[in-house]
Amino acid sequence: MRIVACLLIALSSAAAGDWPHYRGPTHDGVSTDRILTNWSGSVTNPVWLVPVTNSFSSFAIRGGLAYSQVNRFLNGTNREVCVALSITNGTELWSRDLDDAYYPIDTGVGSNDGPRTTPSVDGDSIFVLTSYLKLYRLNATTGDIIWQKDLLTLYGGVIEDNQNSASPLVEDGLIFVNTCAGTTVLGGVGISNLMAFSTSDGALAWRSRNENMTLSTPTLATIHGVRQVIFATRTGVVSLNPTTGAFLWKFNYPFTISSGAELIVSPVVYNNIVFIMGPRVYFMGSLAHRITFTNGTWSTTQIWAKTGGTPANDTVATWWTTPVVLDGFLYGQIGNTPSGTADGENSDNCPLKCVDIQTGTIKWSTNNFGRGGVLLVNKQLVVLTEKGALVLVRPNTNAYTELGRFQAIPGYSQTTNKCWNTPAVADGKIYIRSTYFGALYDLSVPGLKLDPPTPEPTGGFQLTVRTSDGSSVNSNRLTAMEVRASTNLTLSPEAWPKLTNTLMLTNGIVVVTNVDGISPRRYFIVAEPK
């Protein structure tokens, strides 16, 4: 008697993933989640769309919850509040009052211009850095305060005119922050303001460098095999050993950040190239340095810069949107002129650009994206426009190539409802915010499963592949789909031989006929290699 066994495995199903930090788990706006590329029909309907109070905070996702910051009127005053929403229906499950929501300098909204930081999730805890540099650890399930540190009171310094908008960066039990600004001294010594704190109790792990604060969230990257935490300060980009705070390298800007000017973009790392960008309205621009490590010594070399007198049509500058990088090309909302024009960096018409990170050459530019945010999801660009459209773009270096678009946030308003936020993605679901709404769109690719084999009169078998949620298999998936078989369960599934039988798509399911039954026992899997 022949026994045919079937393993209900789909090797290609989108890997379950969280989005625990601003710009994602790898701190670079990149996700390996698979998402649908046919943006039509029901996928353009939100799973939920809920009002949230004014904020530029994005979402962090973990354990069935979406975390963000909001501005809420409590007991007669505006307060910065951390909230947790259910990813199932957007219901608020808890909230925690953390700090003043007072923003005396108007940077876009006015008296409600914040908060602007995104929480970080690590294990069962949430870490929040407020506009006035209060650092919190909260219980992720209840929002209860585990510990709190007022960094200005403890370590000195002067808050930025526009307050803090840098999010806390968490890795390996440490929280990395650029804490203080100005030339204030503590105990007669210049302030070392690049700091790391213990996630367990908030104790200072190290402090390094007398640098001035910016609004840029630091990033973690590995260059020449060395892990490092990289800060954009007011004089240049600084790299430190994340464990000890030891100095690795620094390069200075070819421009001066004047008092009141803002640098918000995070450093972008591609191999051994580090890119940074600021707004032209503050006479900044962009530059890239190559980082080398020879005989135990770090050095940096500027490979290009576009600042100051650069012609407007060749400028690479932005207000605050950090671009993503793929195969040596940057993609992001990057303007040409400061404001008031169709290609202004400070405009809801700001273009999406493709820029060669090694030369600064603009490959293409397309208007009407505004100051939103961009992610790289399974090597496709997911762009949130300022006016609330979600756009899918192929990262083609030769020309702008749009694959899909729909209006994800309704009711755009320059004053009360705009998307100055970076999206988040987890398990193929896209989480977006405006200054009025939060929303979830399910663009995940359904998993695959095999039905038990069906005997055929010829002595062979028929195999049937269908989606795990009962939806039709998309024809685009058929060309990459494989069915594999093995008699040896100890082999890695990737090593199982591929069947040569034709896969046929019929009525939304895949059928494989004439599978031979000569082996006494065989196991089958369905796969979609990336």
Describe this protein's structure.
With 530 residues, the chain is mostly beta strands. Among the domains are: 3-13 and 446-527, no CATH class; 57-115 and 117-207, Lipocalin, CATH 2.40.128. 2% of the residues lie in helices and 43% in strands. It contains two helices and 43 strands. The protein has a five-stranded mixed β-sheet, with no helix packed on it. Strands 37, 38, 39, 41 and 42 form a five-stranded antiparallel β-sheet that branches. Strands 3-36-35-34 form a four-stranded antiparallel β-sheet, with no helix packed on it. β8 and β9 form a beta hairpin. The longest helix is centred in the first third of the chain and has 5 residues, at 151-155. It is globular.
Features:
disordered N terminus, Lipocalin, 43% strand, 530 residues, mainly beta, 2 helices
The radius of gyration is: 25 Å
CATH fold-level assignment of one domain? Lipocalin
Distance between the termini: 37 Å
What is the CATH architecture term of one domain?
Answer: Beta Barrel
Query: How many helix segments?
Result: 2
Helical content stands at under 10%
Mean of the pLDDT scores? 88
Structural class: mainly beta
Give a count of the beta strands, DSSP E runs of length 2 or more. Answer: 43
Q: Report on the biggest sheet.
A: 5 strands, mixed
For the biggest β-sheet, the strand order reads 2-30-31-32-33
